[in-house]
Amino acid sequence: MLHSPASRSSDKARLERQLAESQALAHIGSWEWDVVCGQLTWSDEHYRIWGVEPGAKVDMDTVLQRIHPADRARVQRIIDTSLQDGRPYRMEFRVCRPDGSERIVEARAQLELDAGGRPVRSYGTAQDITERTYFAAALKRVEERYREAVENAAEGVFRTTRDGRYVVANRALARLLGYDTPEQLMAERTDLTRDHYVDPRERARFLRLLETQETVQGFEYEAYRRDGTRVWLREHARVVRDRAGEVHFEGTVQDVSDHRLAKDLRDQLLARAISAQEEERARVARELHDETGQALSAILLGLRNVQDAPTREKARAICERLRDLTAHAIRNVGRIARGLRPSALDDLGLVPALRRYADELEGARGVEITITDDGTARLPPDVETTLYRILQEALTNVARHAKARRALVLIERRESLVRATVRDDGRGFDPAASRRDAPRHRLGLIGIEERATLLGGAVRIASHPGAGVTLIVDLPIHNGD
Known about the structure:
The protein has helices at residues 5-26, 44-50, 60-66, 69-85, 130-152, 171-176, 182-188, 192-195, 200-213, 257-308, 312-340, 343-347, 350-365, 381-402, 431-437, 443-454; strands at residues 28-34, 40-42, 89-96, 102-113, 119-128, 156-161, 166-169, 215-224, 230-241, 247-255, 368-373, 406-414, 417-424, 458-463, 469-476. Helices cover 52% and strands 25% of the residues. The chain is of the alpha+beta class and 481 residues long. It is built from 16 helices and 15 strands. A hairpin with a 5-residue loop joins strand 3 (89-96) and strand 4 (102-113). The protein folds into four domains: 17-134, Beta-Lactamase; 153-255, Beta-Lactamase (2-Layer Sandwich), CATH 3.30.450.20; 258-340; 345-481, Heat Shock Protein 90. It has a five-stranded antiparallel β-sheet with strand order 2-1-5-4-3, with helices on both faces.
């Protein structure tokens, strides 16, 4: 189809208008420089980028004067190099507009060469990238603050791939797992299922939880440190997806080994308490059956004999024996009751109750026990009861296990606390080895520590094999008690 000159002129004007509108929308201007004659031609959008009225006369000297002084020499050097080697260039620089504002421009250029390889024309585009540059700088600052927050966090912070490889780790996580740096951790621990989890099934459970609910709160598991030791971790994690849709897991990690140890000790203490309760019930039942029950049976039989006695003298003799037997039964019942809850503790206080218990141990085990105090007044009921049970446990341990001949208990009040010290001359032991190698044999100490902890107290123990044991218990006495 043929077009008339008028039609072709209209099409050209329309295309030029569309080009100008596109440049304005994209903030991209175009330019052309006749290198031979020095003529410079700009599009309207190029004028707007530089803050100059469209159509105003411009030349290369004007252009260079509008470039920020700090960028000017670099721009001149890039242009000169391009004119020499004929290669295109791309560069960024700041423009100082007549109104005093600054814009950041990205310029691109191509060169047209003559038959001899000399440049005759340079042309290209300039795009206003001010907002994009400021946004990128702001985003970089945010990322730097985020990285700084992650690096300085007290908790371990991580991001992993789904197949179990660290891509982000902070210093706290590296220290927690025994590594010198996060980089070392990420380089060495490349398969969490194999390298991290003590029980690989926990990794599978962790993945199932994330797949079904995309977040996990308070996930606890046991992990390996770099040296092969173990640590209990509590993890909070969530699913994140990058721009490509790849799944990652990110979250925080805490060391909860102390919490787990305390829980294990509480479980042991609870089991011991239940066992001790059953043992105590069995002991009471046995004593009631073997001693009190037999005494009552004998009394019942004696009463029948009294009824059938042929003479008054015979009946009187039987009654004498029954009176002695009844007194013995009463003493046994009292002893059993004192073992369950010593009335002397309520009526007379801590020291008399302990002395009565020590007398029973001396008679049963042959250990000489001395109880002394500084004459302090009665303590709060909860403190007296706790301290009585602690010292009862300690003296029982001395009598049963220490092979000691003598033990000393000293109770003294010190400002806002009461201190009880138990010393014996027995065989002693290594406390560190006891804690590490024989947990079943230190349940008595666990019970003492647990009772003291419940009142906010503390327990110290000093001993060496062959040198006896010194146990010190401090319990606070709160103001107003």
